[in-house]
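Box 4.2: Ligand-aware structure prediction
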Amino acid sequence: MPDSPSISVPQLVNVQINGLWLQFPKGTRLIEACEQAGHFVPRYCYHKKLTSPGNCRMCLIEMGMPKMGPDRKPSLGADGKPEINWMPRPQICCATDVSEGLGVRTNSPLVEECRRGVMEFLLINHPLDCPICDQAGECRLQEFSIEYGRQDSRFLENKVKKPKNVELGPRVTLDDERCILCSRCIRFCEEIAKDDVLGFIDRGSYSTLTAHPGRRLENNYSLNTVDICPVGALTSSDFRFKMRVWFLKETKSFCTSCATGCNTIIGTREDTIYRQTPRENDAVNSCWMCDYGRLNFDYLQNERRLLEPLVREENALKPTTWSRAIETVVARLKPFVSWQIAILASGRMTNEELWLTGQLARSLDVTLIDIVPRTGPGDDILLSEDRNPNTNGARLLGVASKDGARLRQIYDALAAGQIQVLISLGENPLRLGLTTDFLERLPVYIVMDLLSNETTDLASAVLPSFGFAEKRGSMINGKGRLQRLNRAVRGQGQSRDDWEILRDLLHALTGGNGIYTIEDVFRQMSEAVPEFNGLTLSRIGDLGVQLLQTDRSPNPPGEPAEIKVREREKEKHSQ
Ligand code: SF4
Ligand code: SF4
Ligand code: FES
């Protein structure tokens, strides 16, 4: 008989929180237990994915242990539960785990008085420049001072002046006066980015955050320190002073700059993207994302953006309507037979676009179809070497060959002059190593893309399409997780969603195809491809669905969070 898999059942401990006895798995942080019980404890230095230094003291609570009777057994109260011996002084709850019989009060008068005291100390040297602070609207100091701040100041001395506007690195600016010395940024650099670059200098009121001598905060994860800084001390040099955060519309999406597919929130206003910030997904990116992916959105507003469909007439590209552009493309394809046509697709296309591309190839009987690989240096944190976000989708849907064999065939056929028609979907054929001479000689060269490139001027027709933040659709990341893109902004000019362009091409080539919405494309795909069976775009959800077993992008750092944080703490304490 095969061994049955062993299931480890966590040991539960009884904890009294604000008078109510509850059970939590052994090893749960007390601050997390309180939150799970519905009692949020204010905190500054604690971050669940980092070690707990316990230095801000904002999470003070009252704590007690079971009262022991003369028989060394917990003495029971009238309700039959252990009585608690409360400690006279408050304790922090971010660096303590739950334990059997522990009692906690998170809202007693003593606790509230302590929090007011901590707030008063934290604000002693704070410049209180909320009206001009970039963090306003998402600042923990602002939030907690509403509940625990004083109306007036008792501080008569001069505030300590600290450095302002310090360029800690190329992407991060520091306002030291606002820093509350929580050390989250220091710990992030050390524990997650593996770049021990920040530290405190000087003592007491003069303690100041700075980069180590001769060092700059320039690692590829530096902007995560801005996300986790609970106050406005660290700001993004790119986003600083551009937009008040309460004006931003937030759209859940994911980064398409590499195969990891870090989950994001895209902050937009009036169809302009202002920032991307990481969204927690423990199966993909934990709470982090790299700077390269985070800042890679400006190209959507680039001046090279293709804004209207173009067709070649009298040896020049001329603007036209969408219906004429589609008609022209189909008319130019018709005289050629399948072996004279090649399709260069892209690993940046969504599954829905790749599915329709596959249909287009089938309708033309084209076998020379592949995607162009795109690689760059990866790291062991998040960044994947594969810079195409949907290589797995292209392989699963049969558009990409496993080993790039079809791409070599396309190159050889183009070089030999066999190919008369090249359809380039979001790719630049020069990336294959071809020169523009090859393209000049092609009778038909169709381009569907977002931005113009050196080859666009040679096209027979140009079909302007959408960028990642302008479309809906799905992709499969390097780890085989199916994730959903959501539209954050409208497309520019007359550009159209790629799936609509492909649908119209197919329609013009083959007649009606019953596709009216992107959901119809997904339905067709899920009926034909077993891996997608039972799924819909809405069922993918905000955190995605594990679809394939592959392992091409790094594991999210610090996951599973609890275990890794504990391991790091043990390492630190043994040093
Ligand atoms: S800069 Fe921000 S994250 Fe860093 S120690 Fe100061 S308050 Fe904490
Ligand atoms: S690691 Fe990849 S997916 Fe994540 S933010 Fe960077 S480029 Fe984007
Ligand atoms: S959150 Fe507990 S001491 Fe800072």
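In the box above, the bound molecule is FE2/S2 (inorganic) cluster. The chain has a mean pLDDT of 92.
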